[in-house]
Amino acid sequence: MLYDTIVGIATIQGISAINVIRVSGSDAFAIVNKIFKGKDLATMESHTVHYGHIVDNENIIDEVLVSVFWEPKTFTGENVVEISTHGGVMIPSKIVELLITNGCRMAENGEFSKRAFLNGRIDLSQAESIMDIISAQTEQQLRLANRGLHGDIKKMIGELQTSILDMISKIEVNIDYPEYDDTLVMTNNILRPEIKKLIAKLSVILHNSSTGKIIRDGIKTVILGKPNVGKSSLLNSLLKEDKAIVTEVSGTTRDLVEGEWNLGGVILNLVDTAGIRNTDDVVEKIGIEKAKTALEGADLVLLVLDQSQSLTAEDIDLLELTKKKIRIIVGNKIDLGKHVNIKFEKMIDISAKNSIGLDQLEAEVKRLFIDESLLKENQMLLANSRHIGKISEAKAALEDALKACENQFPVDIIEIDIRKSWEVLGEITGETGSEALIHTLFSRFCLGK
Known about the structure:
It is a single chain. By secondary structure, the protein is α/β, with parallel strands linked by helices. It folds into 3 domains: 116 residues, Gyrase A, domain 2, CATH 3.30.1360.120; 150 residues, tRNA modification GTPase MnmE domain 2 (Four Helix Bundle (Hemerythrin (Met), subunit A)), CATH 1.20.120.430; 155 residues, Rossmann fold (3-Layer(aba) Sandwich), CATH 3.40.50.300. 47% of the residues lie in helices and 19% in strands. It has 15 helices and 13 strands. It has a 7-stranded mixed sheet with strand order 3-4-5-6-2-1-7. The protein has a 6-stranded mixed sheet with strand order 9-10-8-11-12-13, sandwiched between helices. α6 runs antiparallel to α7 and α7 packs antiparallel against α13. The radius of gyration is 29 Å and the shape is flat.
């Protein structure tokens, strides 16, 4: 299958100015030539664009521009042809059909990027960064994704693996030439300091990655409170639109209402929930259960209290319910008075209706979740959950190696854990890892990428 010539539509189909159809493989020029009325693409220089028509026998399908790219200096490392057609659904579908009839195979999801990886054009972390670039919604997300695409992750992992290989080589020399160093000298004077240094590096990477992950994935934020405290008003004020219905009737919100708040380059995935209270209303009960379910998976809870009245039993229950979550207590309706006093915990005073105090709420979210010094220093931050998980695995393996050193295990036993950390790090870039891992990752890509 790797040697098939594949085709896929690289743009979203629909009413648009153009669509781009991508063909990659050794027979790309020959196959496209069969349906292209214009210059002989196989004789054209690489990275050139040519005018002509796509035809089905003598019938003109579309007026097109065709871009020619010769291997190996292409995205996939193979011969590539890109056909720029007019937008719509019928034209690109017809052209793909003609290409398949003349020898192409329909590309699988992510197969172009997969071929780029298999042909050594990009590593696995760069491939994943491509999808992050596509899905980026903020400048911070785009900046992180571009650093991954430009090889910063690969460089960082490579430096860590080099340090580990240096330890492994010293162990191998000790095993092959026992007179070089005795076991105690090897473990205490050589391996232990190096292992500790690497563990410290991985710990810093993991600590900083929390900021990176938040930038990439956002913060799942649930707005919670009893009925009629202004949860929906807060959602609307943060989003600057009337997303949720607001009335003076308690229990108006029955289902989850969602929206995204761009907080200086960090996305808060906001969920407005039904007011939590005891009720006999069957529909409202369902909404309350959904609210409690959303609470369980939340990264942050905005617990809204009504400043215009004293705390009620329902408020106290909610304070207890959320005490183990990361939360910000929001005192709403400050314009109507201040009758709530929370001891031992900070409360942000706001008026959602009048957009008062929202800047303080924004500052508190940043304080809790975002290390802005890392952003200012433009440090390389891991953001992908898979990468972070592999760093954690590598750190755990090195910690096992350190314990083995402290217990004076033979160096060949210690080497097993050290080598495991090297292999786990290699899974981030694809240097090590199973074929199943590669297939699973690329299957998540869009069709033409």
